[in-house]
């Protein structure tokens, strides 16, 4: 397993992309069920306010840095995680692995039709990739039995769930064993990107920690709160965490 660090009271693993993909392969081979969650800056204030979400992060097998803000923040707190990995970065190597090994992939989430389109595009790039199934993310999460049954019956090895934070974390933690998949990854808006519906941020902007500026420009109405309010609160919480460390001499 990967070393775990305490990030402002939240779990965070020190992991990079290729070791993660090869670990995941081993876990699928061994049939060990694993839940992987990502953490970006705006998740931190949500987690510090929402005990349920915090417990879901705690219960996950692996929590990785899904934003440059978290990578930098972990460095400022003295225990830097190696890199930012979003599921948009993981998808190509995981799809290649799945195509090579015959692992069945299921995509759950997004607006109707989006996961289907993402699946088609994935199959065009990764010949032989088995898509076990797809389902949109606008079902009744209080009555999920039909969706759980659909996913389970499709016998996926790898399941991506994109319902947004913290709904997706609650869903995969609550229904971990009922979903039937071995590797379960939450993935936010991954299908919007993978389907081509939302353009991807240029790599240089992501590396500079400016992905939020790009995404805010694309969807200001939906994202202003996350990026302007929650990122601001994250910076305050990070500042407080650094102050605490100085006081205790760490
Ligand atoms: N979504 C969904 N069901 C819902 C609410 C949201 O499937 O009830 C989807 C939405 O269509 C989008 C994703 O969840 O594809 C959330 O994406 P967002 O960009 O917020 O996630 P991020 O990747 O930034 O965490």
Sketch the major β-sheet. Answer: 6 strands, parallel
Q: How are the strands of the largest sheet arranged? A: 4-3-8-7-5-6
Low-confidence stretches: none
Distinct ligand kinds: uridine-5'-diphosphate
Give the helix level as a range of percent.
40-55%
What is the H-and-E element order?
EEHEHHEHHEHEHEHEHHHH
Report how far the terminal alpha carbons are from each other: 25 Å
Counting DSSP E segments of at least 2 residues, the number of strands comes to: 8
Estimate the global geometry from the Cα principal axes: globular
- Average pLDDT, rounded to a whole number, is 96
Radius of gyration: 18 Å
What fraction strand? 15-25%
Number of DSSP helices? 12
Q: What is this structure, in a nutshell?
A:
With 250 residues, the protein is an alpha/beta fold. It is 52% helix and 16% strand. Helix 1 (17-30) crosses helix 5, helix 2 (43-49) crosses helix 3 (51-59) and helix 11 (211-218) packs antiparallel against helix 12.
């Amino acid at each position: 397993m990967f070393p775990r660090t305490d990030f402002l009271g939240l779990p965070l693993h020190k992991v990079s992309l290729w070791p993660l993909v090869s670990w995941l392969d081993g876990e699928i081979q061994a049939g060990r069920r694993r839940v992987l969650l990502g953490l970006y800056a705006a998740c931190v204030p949500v987690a510090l306010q929402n005990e349920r979400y915090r417990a879901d992060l705690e219960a996950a097998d692996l929590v990785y840095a899904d934003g440059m803000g978290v990578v930098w923040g972990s460095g400022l707190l003295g225990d830097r995680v190696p890199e930012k990995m979003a599921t948009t970065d993981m998808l190509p190597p995981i799809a290649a692995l799945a195509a090579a090994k015959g692992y069945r992939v299921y995509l759950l989430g997004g607006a109707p039709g989006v996961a289907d389109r993402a699946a088609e595009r994935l199959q065009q790039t990764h010949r032989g990739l088995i898509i076990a199934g797809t389902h949109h993310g606008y079902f009744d999460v209080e009555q999920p039995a039909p969706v759980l049954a659909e996913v389970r019956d499709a016998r996926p090895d790898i399941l991506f769930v994109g319902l947004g934070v913290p709904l997706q974390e609650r869903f995969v933690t609550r229904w971990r064993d009922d979903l039937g998949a071995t590797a379960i990854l939450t993935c936010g808006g991954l299908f919007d990107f993978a389907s081509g519906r939302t353009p991807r941020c240029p790599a240089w902007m992501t590396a500079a920690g400016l992905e939020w500026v790009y995404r805010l420009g694309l969807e200001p109405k939906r994202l202003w709160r996350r990026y302007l309010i929650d990122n601001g609160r994250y910076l305050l919480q990070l500042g407080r965490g650094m102050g605490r460390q100085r006081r205790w001499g760490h």
